[in-house]
Structures are given as C-alpha cells and as structure tokens.
TrEMBL record:
The name this protein goes by in its record: GTPase Obg
Name of encoding gene: obg
Binding site for Mg(2+): S174, T194
Positions contributing to GTP binding: 167-174, 192-196, 214-217, 284-287, 319-321
Domain called OCT: residue spans: 358-436
GO terms, biological process: ribosome biogenesis
Localization annotation: Cytoplasm
Superkingdom, natural source: Bacteria
Organism: Streptococcus sanguinis SK49
Length: 436
C-alpha cells in the first residue's frame, strides 16, 4: 500500500459555547442581592496550521473527525466560564481546503506556519445578570451556548514545486531527477515505477536553485482516469515551468512527436490553464543509436505543425546516463523560472466568499413548510439559532422565546399559511401546539 495520500474527506466540529447560569446573590447582611449568574465561555475553533515537516495527508486516513472542546458554563458571583482552547490540526504545505457541500475553495495553505480557521466556536450564552431590568430586577432567564460550526471538508494536496517533469512512463524522468538532485526515486525498467510524486532540489553552477517534481508517467486517456489517471495530474498545477521529457530513442516503438502531442492533449483535457505554463522539451536518451536521427525528424515535424507566429519551445538534447547536456538544460530552466510569474490556481468563482458570522439581513428570518404528518415545520438560520440558545428548563426563557417568535412575525405567517388552533408546529425535534 502506498504511504502517499493526497486527498482526504474529513469532518470538523467547533466547540459549543458554554451555557449561561441562573443564580442569585444570597449573602447575610446583603438585602436584595439580585441576579448573579455569569456568562458561558467561548467554544474552541478548529484551526488548520501548515507544518513543513508533513509531506502527505496520511494522518487523515484513519482520523477523519476533529472536534474542539466546548466552553465552560457560567458560574455564580457573575463569573464567566472559561473559554475552550482552539483545536490545532496540522496539514502539509500545498493543501487546498474545500467545503464538501458547496465545492468552494475555503483556503489554499502554502506558507509554513500559515493558519486558517475552518470552523468557528460558538459564543457563550448570557447569564441572568445580563437580563436584569428595572421592570424585572430578578430574571430567571439565561441563554444556552451558541452551537459551534460544523462542516465536512475535502482536503487536496498539490505538491509545491517550481518545475514538473511530465512524459510517458519509462522516458527517464526518475533517472533525470536522481542525477540533477539528491532525491532517490525508485528506478526500474518497467512502466509506472513511479507511483507517487518525488521532489528534489536543484542547484545550478551559477548558484540558482529550484524544486523539481517527478510525477508518475502519463498515458493516453489519463485525464479520463486511464492508468494512474487524474490521481497525480493535480500536482502539475502548482508548477511554473514544465519539462516535457521525451524518449528520443523511441525504444518503446512509439513516435516521439506523437508522444509529445498525446501528453499535451492530456494536460489540456485535465485543465486548459496548464497550457499557459511554459514548456521546455527534454530530448532524453541521446546516447542511444537512433536518437540523433529521431531528434532531427522531431524538430522538422514540430516546426511544420507549429503556428508561424508562435514561439517554438526550446529543445535540449540530453542523456541522463552520461550527464550530457544537463548543465545547459538546468541553466535554461532557471532563466525561464526567473521571468515566469506564479499562476493563479483558482478564480473568484471557485473561492468561497470571506466568511461572515452574523445573519444575512436579506435572508428570510424563517421559512414555513408542512410535513407529511400535517405538522407545520419552522426553519431558518436565525430562528434555529434562537431556538438552540433558549433554555427551555426556565418558564421565563420559554415566554421570552414565544415573544421573539411573535416579534419575527411567525404567528401571523402561520395564520396566513392556514394554521389553526391546536395544529402541531415543529422546530427541529421540538413540537408545540399553535394557539390562535
């Protein structure tokens, strides 16, 4: 089993706020002590933090549920409950976080130490000390803590590399990486020797350095899932320059130019924007007998089929075995990197808008529907939040909730929908009778 994991689906749950407390000051020689119940503490957030020491999402293979602690309840003497600590979840550099329900990108975590709150903890409920008024100096009302945010997330790792090596299986990508860097990828005389991305750092003679990723070999139909398919195509997206490695000896019986067209077609099919990245053609295995003649034919076909106004990609003949032409290739790659900006991975339509943790003023405060058993069902973010934060163990709190519903226009809306005296109304799992 491969120990490389680059996708994961997880569930996160922020902590609930602590409940507020109902308490009264009762001390000798202190008449009319009044309310003394404190507020609950804030629930913990779930925070993703980039850790450069991690290389895969393997930690999320078996641990898929992350739940932060809830805040403490309010206490007597007007003391607040303690807020919960945030739950820190460490992720590797290059992790993209999406909301599983909407598919929107929440954040792209690429810098070491970068933090992002993926689920916010609920605020603490207010204690009865907060509800004292001249008309009601001794209220028996407190709030429950606000529920913490809960969501399902899709994590996708795209390796951080400046340069990506692409090409058919067995064209010599792994050998090239092992020669130009200190990486030790698996090398073998069979297809798909490389089944996980390999990374290495290159340092040129002039002192330039850049990261190179050797990606598993592509074959025709990869963008539709053939071979290793789209499993590793995503890792090309972060690269700024593509080194297109071609077996110029045609040792597998394929035509080098047809290989070149086939791989570009797969890149284009997977993501059209990959074709915006500049390519350098690496004519590998030039130490083989027929390579020189094949390279001549390749250049002729490339020139004949290229737009006359377009700039032909650079071609560098090399041999990873004899190290022929490597210095020139690396210098040209470093020079191309210097003038190539980073590419935007996601446009605005793919990104989720900055989270707003209040109520949308334009959204309806509640919605009314009818269940199969003829029960009226009330729903809506604002209404459900009021419901969850109401302490139904206290009669005063229940009456307050009823007044809030009336103030929101729920009673009138139910009448307009045809609700009659004695009809059942449901909010979540809680049911009560409608009184006209």
């Amino acid at each position: 089993m491969s120990m490389f994991l680059d996708t994961a689906k997880i569930q996160v749950k922020a902590g609930n706020g602590g409940d507020g407390m109902v308490a009264f000051r009762r001390e000798k020689y202190v008449p009319n002590g009044g309310p003394w119940g404190g507020d609950g503490g804030r629930g913990g957030n779930v925070v993703f933090v980039v850790d450069e020491g991690l290389r895969t999402l393997m930690d999320f293979r078996y641990n898929r549920h992350f739940k932060a602690q809830s805040g403490e309840k309010g206490m007597t003497k007007g003391m607040h409950g303690r807020g919960a600590e945030d739950l820190i979840v460490r992720v590797p550099q290059g992790t993209t976080v999406r909301d599983a329900e909407t598919g929107k990108v929440l954040t792209d975590l690429v810098e070491n130490g970068q933090e992002f709150i993926v689920a916010r903890g609920g605020r603490g409920g207010r204690g009865n000390i907060r509800f004292a008024t001249p008309k009601n100096p001794a209220p028996e009302i407190s709030e429950n803590g606000e529920p913490g945010q809960e969501r399902e997330l899709l994590l996708e790792l795209k390796v951080l590399a400046d340069v990506g090596l692409v090409g058919f299986p067995s064209v010599g990508k792994s050998t090239l990486l092992s020669v130009i860097t200190a990486a030790k990828p698996k090398i073998g005389a069979y297809h798909f020797t490389t089944i996980v991305p390999n990374l290495g750092m290159v340092r040129t003679h002039s002192g330039e350095s850049f990261a190179v990723a050797d990606l598993p070999g592509l074959i025709e139909g990869a963008s539709q899932g053939v071979g290793l398919g789209t499993q590793f195509l995503r890792h090309i997206e972060r690269t700024r320059v593509i080194l297109h490695v071609i077996d110029m000896s045609a040792s597998e019986g394929r035509d080098p130019y047809e290989d070149y067209l086939a791989i570009n077609k797969e890149l284009e099919s997977y993501n059209l924007r990959l074709m915006e990245r500049p390519q350098i053609i690496v004519a590998n295995k030039m130490d083989m007998p027929d390579s020189a003649e094949n390279l001549k034919v390749f250049k002729e076909k490339l020139a004949a089929n290229y737009d006359e106004f377009a700039e032909l990609p650079q071609i560098f003949p090399i041999s990873s075995l004899t190290k022929q032409g490597l210095a020139t290739l690396l210098d040209a790659t470093a020079e191309l990197l210097d003038k190539t900006p980073e590419f935007l991975l996601y446009d605005e339509s793919e990104m989720e808008e900055e989270a707003y943790y209040g109520f949308d003023e334009e959204a309806p405060a509640f919605e009314i529907s009818r269940d199969d058993d003829a029960t009226w069902v009330l729903s809506g973010d604002k209404l459900e939040k009021l419901f969850n934060m109401t302490n139904f163990d206290r009669d005063e709190a229940v009456m307050k909730f009823a007044r809030q519903l009336r103030g929101m226009g729920v009673d009138e809306a139910l009448r307009d929908h045809g609700a009659k005296d004695g009809d059942l109304v449901r909010i979540g799992k809680f049911e009560f009778e409608f009184v006209d």
